[in-house]
Specification:
The complex is a heterotrimer. By secondary structure, chain A is an alpha/beta fold. Chain A contains eleven helices and nine strands. Helices cover 36% and strands 14% of the residues of chain A. In chain A, strand 3, helix 4 and strand 4 form a beta-alpha-beta unit. The chains are: A alpha/beta, B alpha/beta, C alpha/beta.
């Protein structure tokens, strides 16, 4: 694809963070390294650094999500930014004009960053294409397209447990078709050079061209879990049962629900992840979700450090300066 | 008014002509090709040396947006744009507001078109009342008012019994049914082709079967009803196979393709380029090759612009919320000539797909340069290059997916009934 | 040169020993300050572990130059509340680094006192900050730069900026 990547500035640094697709390995590692630096802030007496003091960040949630919104809010606050939350009810009839109007209004309030969650794929790209040059856009999930901060916090969690990406075999289980998390994870994992990415689920929930993203497809859970180091379980949306994709939650659990027994097919030191919120007894059994292989709660706390890193990087790069060559700082 | 067009390369596929000669016009008609008629003294002589002289183009699908969507475009704006690009006859689908399902709307369109008088406009009447897919429109009355065919445009025809009835009734009236084939359940909320880009962008997808199943159903009903059906905007290689088989079988079917689908694929969606939100969707490279082959072997008869001008707001939103359609009137001819230049088609085939073939499908007297024919003529400078930029587009819709392309071939003169309606000012 | 620097360090350790209050904590500022602090820590035979401070998140020039490429996180392996702190840096110039370091220390807790020790105190202060203990004072032109290289051996480079 030879379109200009709007998420990068002219020096190839992050200006917006919209998708993992197209970012290179060193940039992803930068994010992880920065996140490591920020991770300590949450453990201090004053859980705050003044890095983004005076910046205003708007959480623009066109689709409700308490969890993601809260971690972004916390990340912004730990960086000392001012944050405003806007929950904009998005109805199917909502037209583009009003979205543009919302943006113009917020811009007039001199926001420096929009964190955007929207039910339509491409919404964050659209908003990034419309904002003034001094504004950064972070994608907090757009339709079935991308959820890059979730993917990066999962990479952070994987790195913490597994150190080296290159030897890893990772399985993503569930509704791949509608999952923005799955798409972002696939791009992140392959960019970071894992040895194999597998997707596992019923044919109705795995797009037939998914192999073009470089993954191996399994329709059988046990076969797909064999020898894997990492399992990412996806949340199953209830509305899939209303369309002709799945018969029932019970049947899904029997076929694809992650249980202790099925987990035995994976490597003994496998870690189990889930982007949350969990449907216990649908995609994952409580014993597994709360068990010793589960790193689900760690994912949540890593989410804050990773989002701090991305916010600091994008807002820092807006400074009209060339990339630094040395560490020089006036003493 | 007597006009002589001298030394042009006359390309007239209907008469199997391709030679450098002169053409003479008097009282709005072509009076001779080749030899000067006795006593002919032209009021105006056009030097067409190095240029192509061909019949005025016939475009089977142009949305004029009037009545109902005048904020996007008007009959005046779009027929003026058509004239500048050599198009002299336009068919417009019935999905205006109100729908073309009464004589009054047909008359209104004719009147508006006549007022500007830059191109001939031929409305397609509604196939079902209000395009609702439930009851038949008054096709005979619409025919009487001047509709040259009937169509349900994009509106779904889920009920096969209704489609069967509509085809049989249209056949009774001797009307061609312009059928857009899409299974609305398989399309569902889809906005892009189900393929590598729908996977990448996570956009709701339209499988190829949404088209092929609808084409198959229609072909079986054509067989049963004997109706003349024209398949509009075929987008997949598999549909071409189905139509080719039907033609071989002798069914009275024809097909067209949009110029955009001959040049772009799903890859052009890039990062959610809303100008590539089209219906039917841009499909795979394989499909594009299939469409080009189908055109070359005659399975597809005509190329149309499938022109759909939009206002800026219609394309300024997250992808699924934007309106489908591209403004392509301005680029139909150069992009078709491009197919001849890259040897997909011969020049004669390319011109035929824009003139005599669509004229026959529409059932109108146009698309050829026989002596005695109405002088709808297009003169092209085949070497002139130009860039697709906003300022070069005459259509009110600037939603052109070819923005930035360098095209070769520019109309220098357009004659409508012997009257010069467009002349290029360098 | 190395010998000279070693002599300054010995003098500084002596001065600090004189000013010492009971059981101080030492914190070096990343990176040169940590090298200096490591040596002072050894010379003074301090028992408590050495703290490291990275003021990258507290700098006042973020909106001009953005986030640092890679930041070694601060590591203060002790409580600072009510303790006597010796803050160590390599060069005191504008005073902005010390301002940032003080802010960061206060985000960990409220120390009883903070004593500032720097290897080089040069001209060019922009804030009302002074060092309590100094290895060497220098008067340099505004366009001149002094930089400590290390960790082994410690050496000074003075050069004019282009």
């Amino acid at each position: 694809m030879n379109h200009h990547d709007i998420q990068l500035d002219k020096y190839g640094r992050l200006k917006h963070f919209l998708t993992i697709d197209g970012l290179d390995r060193s940039l992803l590692l930068d994010i992880l390294n920065h996140a490591e630096s920020f991770a300590g802030v949450g453990e201090r007496a004053v859980k705050k650094v003044p890095l983004l003091r005076g910046k205003t960040i708007a959480n623009l949630f066109f689709e409700p999500s308490t969890r993601t919104r809260t971690t972004f809010e916390l990340a912004a606050k730990r960086l000392s930014a001012d944050i405003i939350n806007l929950n904009i009810a998005s109805s199917a009839t909502r037209k583009g004009e009003s979205l543009l109007d919302t943006l113009r209004t917020l811009e007039a309030m001199h926001c420096d960053m929009f964190v955007v969650r929207h039910a339509n794929s491409g919404a964050a790209h659209f908003i990034a294409s419309q904002v003034a040059p001094h504004v950064s856009v972070i994608n907090a999930g757009d339709g079935s397209h991308s959820h890059p901060t979730q993917a990066m916090l999962d990479m952070f969690t994987i790195r913490m447990h597994k150190k080296d990406f290159s030897s890893l075999r990772v399985a993503i289980v569930g509704d791949i078709l509608h999952s923005r998390v799955a798409r972002s994870e696939i791009h992140a994992l392959s960019t970071l050079g894992v040895s194999e990415v597998r997707v596992i689920g019923p044919r109705t929930l795995i797009p037939k061209d998914i192999h073009t993203l470089g993954v191996h497809v399994f329709y059988d859970l046990i076969a797909g879990l064999e020898d894997v180091d990492v399992i990412v379980t996806l949340r199953l949306q209830r509305e899939r049962m209303r369309s002709a994709l799945l018969p029932s939650e019970q049947e899904y659990f029997n076929l694809y629900g992650l249980t202790e027994t099925k987990l035995a097919a994976a490597k003994p030191d496998v870690i189990v992840m889930h982007p949350g919120p969990i449907n216990r007894g649908v995609e994952i059994d409580s014993h597994v979700a709360d068990g010793k292989r589960s790193v689900i709660l760690q994912q949540v706390s890593h989410g804050i450090a990773v989002r701090m890193a991305i916010m600091a990087m994008t807002l820092g790069n807006l400074a009209e300066s060339k990339p630094k060559e040395s560490d020089a700082h006036s003493n | 008014m007597r006009i002589a067009i001298k030394h042009g390369r006359i390309v007239d596929p209907a008469n199997n002509q391709d030679r450098v000669t002169d053409l003479y016009i008097e009282k709005g008609k072509i009076v001779a090709v080749g030899k000067t008629p006795a006593g002919f003294t032209p009021n105006r002589t056009i030097d067409a040396k190095g240029k192509i002289v061909c019949p005025g183009l016939v475009d089977l699908s142009v949305r004029l947006c009037e009545p109902g969507y005048e904020h996007k475009a008007t009959i005046a704006s779009e027929t003026t744009a058509a004239a500048s690009t050599g198009i002299t006859s336009i068919c417009c689908p019935p999905d205006t507001y109100p729908v073309i399902d009464t004589s009054a709307v047909v008359e209104l369109i004719y009147q508006r078109a006549l007022k500007t008088n830059m191109a001939r406009v031929y409305p397609l009447g509604a196939l079902t009342h209000g395009l609702k897919g439930e009851t038949l429109a008054e096709m005979h009355a619409l025919q009487g008012a001047g509709c040259i065919g009937v169509s349900n445009a994009y509106a779904p025809l889920d009920n096969s019994a209704v489609l069967r009835g509509a085809l049989e009734y249209a056949a009774t009236c001797g009307l061609t049914v312009h059928l857009f084939c899409e299974d609305s359940y398989l399309r569902d909320q889809g906005v892009v082709h189900e393929g590598i880009m729908s996977v990448r962008l996570g956009l709701p997808a339209i499988p190829e079967t949404a088209e092929t199943i609808a084409v198959s159903r229609a072909l079986l009903l054509v067989e049963q009803s004997g109706a003349r059906v024209h398949f509009c905007r075929i987008s997949s290689a598999r549909s071409i196979e189905l139509i080719a088989r039907a033609k071989k079988q002798g069914l009275p079917v024809t097909a067209d393709v949009s110029i955009t689908h001959l040049h772009l694929t799903e890859i052009d969606l890039g990062a959610f380029n809303s100008h590539c939100n089209l219906r039917p969707p841009l499909r795979s490279q394989y499909d594009k090759e299939g469409l080009r082959k189908g055109l070359a072997d005659g399975t597809i008869d005509a190329i149309c612009s499938d022109h759909q001008p939009h206002d800026d707001d219609a394309k300024s939103a997250p992808f699924s919320m934007t309106e489908p359609g591209a403004s392509t009137l301005d680029v139909l001819l150069p992009l078709t000539l491009q197919l001849a230049r890259d040897n997909t088609l011969t020049l004669s085939q390319a011109i035929a797909a824009l003139t005599i073939k669509p004229a026959k499908i529409a059932g109108i007297q146009a698309g050829h340069l026989s002596a005695g024919a109405v002088a709808d003529i297009c003169i092209i400078d085949p070497e002139k290059s130009w860039t697709v930029i906003k300022n070069n587009l005459l259509s009110a819709g600037k939603n052109n997916p070819f923005m930035g392309w360098e095209l070769t071939g520019k109309v220098t003169h357009t004659l409508l009934g012997g009257r010069i309606v467009y002349e290029y000012q360098d | 040169m190395t010998q000279e620097i070693n002599q300054w360090l010995v003098n500084m350790a002596g001065d600090l020993q004189d000013m010492i209050r009971n059981d101080p904590l030492m914190i070096g500022i990343h990176t040169g300050g940590v090298w200096v602090a490591e040596r002072l820590h050894k010379l003074m035979n301090l028992n408590s572990p050495l703290g490291q401070l990275n003021i990258a998140f507290y700098r006042d020039d973020f909106s001009r130059i953005g986030v640092h490429p890679r930041v070694q996180p601060s590591n203060l392996p002790f409580e600072v509340e009510d303790r006597h702190i010796i803050l160590v840096d390599d060069v005191l110039h504008t005073g902005r680094t010390i301002r940032a370091a003080l802010n960061e220390i206060f985000d960990y807790g409220r120390p009883a006192t903070v004593t500032l020790a720097v290897l080089i105190e040069r001209s060019g202060r922009e804030l009302p900050i002074r060092a309590d203990v100094v290895g060497k004072s220098m008067t340099l032109n505004a366009n001149e730069h002094v930089k400590l290289s290390g960790p082994e051996p410690l050496a000074l480079v003075i050069k004019a900026a282009e």
